[in-house]
Amino acid sequence: VAKKDGDKGRGKIFILPIEECIRIRTGKDTIG
């Protein structure tokens, strides 16, 4: 159960930064 909980938490944490990174990259591309 602990491993499954960690996996879920990691997935959510990973998805959030990835979306932010993509947004930041797109914004830099548009600005540049």
Automatic annotation (TrEMBL):
InterPro entries, alphabetized: N-reg_PII-like_a/b, N-reg_PII/ATP_PRibTrfase_C
Q: What is this protein called?
A: Nitrogen regulatory protein P-II
Species lineage, top-down? unclassified sequences, metagenomes, ecological metagenomes
